[in-house]
Every structure is written in structure tokens, then in C-alpha cells.
TrEMBL record:
Comp. bias (Basic and acidic residues): 323-350
Species annotation: Hyaloscypha hepaticicola
Chain residue ranges for the region called Disordered: 1-26, 306-396
PROSITE patterns: CRAL_TRIO (PS50191)
Molecular function GO labels: lipid binding; phosphatidylinositol transfer activity
SMART domains reported in the protein's UniProt record: CRAL_TRIO_N, SEC14
Name by which UniProt lists this protein: CRAL/TRIO domain-containing protein
GO cellular component: cell periphery
Matching Pfam families: CRAL_TRIO (PF00650), CRAL_TRIO_N (PF03765)
PANTHER family: GH16843P (PTHR45824)
Domain CRAL-TRIO: 116-271
Biased composition (Polar residues): 357-377
């Protein structure tokens, strides 16, 4: 994690009511493992393929040229996540990446707004607060606080919150901690989701958010929920199943001072939608804007480093060799600069009369191919005839 990151380890005077910006200072995020020669070769093959994508296909009218936001999404770590999820099969990874880009358009991931999702979040049935011992943001699910009937917006709520979790991740960490409390409430005795909705959510998570789940901690599982998990277990990827922990001691996974007391932690958290919701949206928007600004500054490349984009100590992958002060330009940028240079007039020493008629003076001025010279605000004058040089204002 970047040394520039400031953390707040102090306990608030009252209950916690907003997201916690950073993990504890004691949290150390290990560097990612080095790729083998074969893995690096496969990554480079996928990178070359995604750089060739100019159009995103869609069957519902949302197809069209690839956007800057989509190129920003195609980071180095993103490509590696899909490669790992497909056991380093290049063709499968490329296919799944393209499928997800199409899904994100058709599902409208970037079009989901805080105002639209807000009614689903009024009771705090999903909150993002605190960080686990590995620096993962904690995403809490509280089915007992369910306040709406099954609908597409319920699933969109989960997608929206996943995107916000990803927005606030710190440098070097690309997974989240999912904490689920199936405790019933006075208004909700059955906290198990419907089977069809459960399968839809699983499909979205496993297909379009691969390698994002770091740990899932689940407590207070009633018999009906236990039966639900038995029904959906066949649809859960084996690697994902290994990350599920049922009725574990959550304090072993999340520092007690950043673990919600409803999940056996020491953090007193009070949910007030009017306070929490705008604070979450503001934090997520700030983090995303910072990430995008860094991406633009480095040259808008496919395969950029997420560690760099999130403000880590690593430089941009495209500044990692040579001069780090300027990003390596894309081919299109180089071509544009070449054309601009070719079109620019050439500067040569020319002799022109001094305006008071006392003689001549040699100056450096642009020479255009049509036999005229120009200098910004200066009037264009024929070089061969030697007229008086006129300018706007008193310029020497």
C-alpha cells in the first residue's frame, strides 16, 4: 500500500455511520506473485487481442465502438483475473472478457445511479464498511433487513454495491470480503433468497466478477437457508466453495475494531441512510475519478496497472522504463503528432526591414511552403518582397 495513504485507526467518538476510507495501518498487502514465462506470454497474447477490439457487439441495440471507460476497465489485473478463472486458456479468457463487456453494456452497469438504487438501500441490508486483515473492503449483506419484494432492482442493487466496493479498493488488493448474517428480524423470518434469484446472482458473480471474492463469512444460518445452500452448491465453482466459511469466528478474519458488532465485532455501527448513502457515493466517485485521471495522464492504455491507478507506489506500466515523467503515447497519438509536425511551418533566419526604416534585422520566423511566414498573432508577410513587419502590440 502506498505510503501516501493516510489511515484512521482512532475509534470515533460515537457510532460509526459512514464508510471507513482505509484499512488499519498494521495491514500489509503482499505483492502479487511473479508470472512465469508461460503466463507472461499468455497475458501478452490476450493484451494484443483486446487492443484490437474496436467494436462491442450487442443484440439489444447497445453495440458500438469501444469506449474509454471500457478500455480503462481492461487493466492488466483484469486480464489476469480472467486468465486465472479460465485456467490460463487464452481463447476462453478472451471470449469471457468480451462476453462481460457486452453484458456490462446490456445490463447497464454504468447507468445504475445512486438515486435509482437508493430505495433498495434504505434499511442498510447491504453496507460497505471496514476492512479485513488482508486489506479487503468488507461488504455486509443483511437479508433480515430486506425491505423490498423480489425484482430486477434487487439484483441491480448487488451489482451496484459490488462496483462501489471495487471503486474503493486500495492499491495491491483486488478482492473483497463478503460477510452475510442470515439472522431473522421482526419483519423478515425467511431470509433465504429465491432459488431463481440465487442462481442469477451466482451466474453474475462467477461469470462477470471472477477472482473478486477473497473470503465469504456466513453466520446465523437457519435450516431453510442451509437447505438453500445445498441446492445452489452444485452451481458454485469449486474454487469459490473453498472461500466460504460458515459460522467461523469473524474476529479471526476482520480486525475487531473494524468489524460490525452485529457480526461479533467491536465496531458500533449505526445505519442512517441519509448519512451513509451520500458518504458512500462520494467516496466511490472520488476514488474512481482519481483512477481515471491517472489513466488519462499515463496515456489511456489497455492493460494499465491497477496498483498505479489506485495511487500505489508502482509507476504506470507504460512509464516503467525510460523517462517516467511522460507517458508512452499510443500509436494514434504518435501519428497525430507526426502529422502536426509535418504541417507546422519550418523556422529559418530571414532579413526584414526595421519598422522605422533605419535598416534591416535578422530574425527567426516560420517559413510556409506557399512562400509566406507567420508567427501566431503576426500578420502574414511575403518573405521575398521584404515589407514592413507588423505586430499586435509593442513586441520586440
Amino acid at each position: 500500500m502506498s505510503a501516501a495513504i493516510e489511515t484512521l485507526d482512532e475509534k470515533p467518538a460515537g457510532p460509526q455511520m459512514t464508510p471507513i476510507p482505509y484499512p488499519l495501518q498494521s495491514v500489509k498487502i503482499p505483492p502479487p506473485p511473479e508470472l512465469t514465462t508461460e503466463q507472461q506470454s499468455k497475458y501478452e497474447a490476450v493484451l494484443e487481442t483486446v487492443k484490437s477490439w474496436k467494436e462491442i457487439q450487442s443484440t439489444n441495440g447497445k453495440g458500438g465502438p469501444i469506449t474509454e471507460n471500457e478500455i480503462l476497465w481492461l487493466t492488466r489485473e483484469c486480464l489476469l483475473r480472467y486468465l486465472r478463472a479460465t485456467k490460463w486458456n487464452i481463447v476462453d479468457a478472451e471470449k469471457r472478457l468480451l462476453t462481460t463487456l457486452t453484458w456490462r453494456r446490456e445490463y447497464g452497469v454504468e447507468e445504475l445511479t445512486g438515486d435509482y438504487i437508493s430505495p433498495e438501500s434504505e434499511t442498510g441490508k447491504q453496507i460497505i464498511v471496514g476492512w479485513d486483515i488482508a486489506g479487503r473492503p468488507c461488504h455486509y449483506l443483511n437479508p433480515g433487513r430486506q425491505n423490498t419484494e423480489p425484482s430486477p432492482r434487487q439484483v441491480q442493487h448487488l451489482v451496484f454495491m459490488l462496483e462501489r466496493v471495487i471503486d474503493i479498493m486500495v492499491p495491491g488488493q483486488e478482492t473483497l470480503a463478503l460477510l452475510i448474517n442470515f439472522k431473522t428480524s421482526k419483519t423478515r423470518s425467511n431470509t433465504a433468497p429465491g432459488l431463481s434469484q440465487g442462481r442469477e446472482v451466482l451466474n453474475i458473480l462467477q461469470t462477470h466478477y471472477p477472482e473478486r471474492l477473497g473470503r465469504a463469512l456466513i453466520i446465523n444460518i437457519p435450516w431453510v437457508v442451509s437447505g438453500f445452500f445445498k441446492l445452489i452448491t452444485p452451481f458454485i465453482d469449486p474454487l469459490t466453495r473453498q472461500k466460504l466459511k460458515f459460522n467461523d469466528d469473524m474476529r479471526q478474519h476482520v480486525p475487531p475494531q473494524q468489524l460490525w458488532n452485529e457480526f461479533h465485532g467491536d465496531m458500533e455501527f449505526e445505519y442512517d441512510h441519509s448519512v451513509y448513502w451520500p458518504a458512500l457515493l462520494k467516496l466511490a466517485e472520488e476514488r474512481y475519478s482519481e483512477r481515471r485521471e491517472r489513466w488519462i495522464k499515463a496515456g489511456k492504455h489497455h492493460g494499465e496497472s491497477e496498483i498505479y491507478l489506485r495511487g500505489g507506489d508502482n509507476p504506470s506500466l507504460f512509464q516503467s522504463s525510460g523517462d517516467k515523467s511522460e507517458p508512452a503515447p499510443e500509436k494514434e497519438t504518435l501519428a497525430a503528432e507526426s502529422e502536426e509536425k509535418a504541417a507546422a511551418p519550418e523556422e529559418k533566419d530571414v532579413t526584414v526591414p526595421v519598422q522605422d526604416g533605419s535598416g534591416t534585422e535578422q530574425i527567426k520566423a516560420p517559413i510556409q511552403t506557399n512562400g509566406t511566414q507567420s508567427n501566431g498573432n503576426m500578420d502574414i508577410i511575403p518573405v521575398t518582397t521584404g515589407p514592413v513587419l507588423t505586430t499586435e502590440g509593442d513586441r520586440t
